[in-house]
Amino acid sequence: MGGVVAAVPEPRRVRALDVARGVGLLGAAVGTATLWLDARRLGPGYRPAERGDVDRLTDLVTALLVDNRVLPLFAVVLGAALALRVQRDGARATPVVLRRAAVLLGLGLLHATLVLEADVLGVLAVLLVLGLPLVRARRRWWVVACVAVLPALVLHGAADGVGGSAGFPDPPADYVLSVVDRTGTWLLGLVLLPLAQAGPLVGVVAGVALVRGGWLQRPEAHRRGLVGLAVVGLAVGLAGAVPYARVVAGPGAPDLATSALAGVASSVSGPAGAVGLVALLALLVPRAPRELRAGRGPGALEALERLGRHSLAAYLATSAVLAVVLAPWALGAGARWGTTATALLAAGTWGLSLVVVLLVRSAPWAAGGRGTGPAQPSERQGLERSSAT
């Protein structure tokens, strides 16, 4: 769709991917906060069965925009970042990617053991390893991979739709016991990952395809295709989430079959919405950062980009803050607050991390007085969190 602009060199980083990480961190924070709700009867989507109208509205919005949407988004970003790395470094990329996958796996184990077993870093580590051969594979293998993980998407969606209706026990209130419980749950989840969590590989394939086609590196040459992807992807993603949102936010307790089918629709449509959002950001984010006028801070996209470059640190810090406030072995607010309060806490923590990143990046000691200094440790991880949350 359009010719290649040969005079423009390939970028080392695609800025839209960093912005997508920054956006995804907000969804990851809100989704993580929901997981701390306990000591009450939970229904579909792990939301409290007894709640007020404000919480129902919050549940409706988060079910539409967050549930089954965040991990696919990070998977698309991971696949694109992985393909860019392989394109740039060739065979030298393989040991680098494997080392980073090992780092993510180790951090995931620590995060799950100390804070929350619903950790995505381990999932992303496995997706990195699985996605590596797909970067160089023929397109027919992309189709084979997507079909192979479709049962995992269906199973995960059905489980999410049923949610707390299955009657899971509350986590231990004692921290030592909770460590044992979380570690065992995380390890079991890693063993069962090909069955229950391999669905995001569809997003990895989509990210690889976008880079292989040059759509993210040269968005001006693929504008029409990106517009189509954005419109169709976001529409499919939103439409697929509607039945699930109605089940999650609706009054009463729907039967398990209805809840499961709604969850499947949400899960299967998640990668489409993620691709649509990445395509939209590729259209909105220029290839080069704009020059900032003296005395003016970065715009919204530049701020999200800076946060996205520190996504690993921001994810872990946000998770720690939520745990301190909501966990039963800490302040225990998750047993008392509703979904609106936890969502506001998550959004506020995300906003604070955005402010911290902007302040650090703007400090004279961080960048020689110009706010454009060398990459920070979390940036050098490159594929963090996407990578993915």
Topology:
Elements lengths: L14 H20 L18 H13 L4 H20 L3 H22 L6 H16 L2 H10 L1 H13 L12 H17 L1 H4 L4 H12 L10 H27 L6 H29 L15 H10 L1 H16 L12 H24 L1 H4 L9 H4 L9
Describe the structure.
There is one protein chain. The protein has 389 residues and is mostly helical. The chain contains 17 helices and no strands. Helix 4 runs antiparallel to helix 8 and helix 13 packs across helix 15. The longest helix is centred in the C-terminal third of the chain and has 29 residues. The two termini are 32 Å apart. The N terminus and C terminus are likely disordered.
Overview in brief:
The chain has 389 residues and is mainly alpha-helical. It has helices at residues 15-34, 53-65, 70-89, 93-114, 121-136, 139-148, 150-162, 175-191, 193-196, 201-212, 223-249, 256-284, 300-309, 311-326, 339-362, 364-367, 377-380.
